[in-house]
Amino acid sequence: MKVRGIILATRYVLVIFIAFLVILPFVLMFMGTFREHTDIIRRGSLALPQRFSTDNFRKVLFQYHFDRYYLNSVLITVPVVGGSLVFALMSAFALSVMNFPLKRFFLLGVVSFGVMIPEVFIMIPIFQLMHGLGLVNNLLSVILPSLAMSACFSTLVIRSFFMGLPRELLDSAMVDGATFWQILWKIYTPLAIPAIVTSGALTAVWTWNTYITPLVLIHDPLKMPLPLGLALFQGQYVANIPLIMTGATLTALPPIMVYLLLQPRVVLGVTQGALK
Q1: Which residues contact 274 (CB under 8 A, 6 or more apart)?
Q2: Considering the entire predicted model, what is its pTM?
Q3: pLDDT (tens digit, 9 = 90+) per residue, 141-186?
Q4: Is residue 53 part of a domain?
Q5: 116 in any annotated domain
Q6: Do 26 and 117 belong together in one domain?
Q7: Host domain of residue 91
Q8: What pLDDT is recorded for position 42?
Q9: For position 143, what pLDDT does the model report?
Q10: Same structural domain for residues 24 and 66?
């Protein structure tokens, strides 16, 4: 009994220590946003701020165009999340309920392929396609590829949820005269809220943090999203530690908040999809 208690206590101590190591950089980054550069150099990065000041936030947001970077990231993330969920719901319903030729090909060859292939591998064809469409240096050049790849992932997540729903639900709705369109939006979609939230949250985080696609397709600094704007900002002000920490905090805060707020539903959606 004592040995079991010692093992359990050791596990808790190890988990707390690992959590401390993970959280510490974020805490230091956040505290550094309220400090001055000379204070960090003189007293070190582990010291608390002598005076809490929001000057760094004001400078980064309005003087160094992070407000514009924020707007660009929102304009990219919202259409990608919304569009990918709409397309994913329709494709997941078709792949889980309807029977049509080449169904397995579309599931394994198209949807799964879109999830497995990294965007770096197809960046040259994407650039050529966007250049041919005249969309280079346009936010649509980032939105369209991200939407396509995110829809593939969301399709797999939502399809696994739909596959777990009883077939009698579909049969009874069809007996009552409901069409496939009505069944999808009035029956299946409300039941799939956990899977939809899971897909939406993960897609939002991935899209917010996207870097390679805008790096290749966006050249105008005023059209860059936050991760790319942060890299540009870091290259220009590498010597000013508080400003870099402020920019990193502003970039990381939205996805962290989204995940913390939706974390229970994300876990529920993943576990339900796995169990079903």
Answers
A1: 160
A2: 0.84
A3: 999 999 988 998 899 889 888 988 888 888 888 888 888 899 999 9
A4: no
A5: yes
A6: no
A7: 61-275
A8: 79
A9: 95
A10: no
Q: CATH number, domain at 152?
A: 1.10.3720.10
90 and 14 belong to one structural domain: no
Task: Please tell me the predicted confidence (pLDDT) of residue 137.
Answer: 92
Instruction: Give the per-residue pLDDT at 274.
Output: 46
Which ranges of the chain have pLDDT less than 70? Answer: 1, 108, 237-239, 264-276
Q: Are residues 173 and 237 in the same domain?
A: yes
Q: What is the pLDDT of residue 89?
A: 94
Count of domains for the chain: 2
User: Contact at 8 Å (CB) between 229 and 221?
Assistant: yes
Show the 3-state SS of the chain: CHHHHHHHHHHHHHHHHHHHHHHHHHHHHHHHCCCCHHHHHHHCCCCCCCCCCCHHHHHHHHHCCHHHHHHHHHHHHHHHHHHHHHHHHHHHHHHHHCCCCCHHHHHHHHHHHHHHCCCCCCHHHHHHHHHHHCCCCCCHHHHHHHHHHHHHHHHHHHHHHHHHCCHHHHHHHHHCCCCHHHHHHHHHHHHCHHHHHHHHHHHHHHHHCCCHHHHHHCCCHHHCCHHHHHHHHHHHCCCCHHHHHHHHHHHHHHHHHHHHHHHHHHHHHHHHHHHC
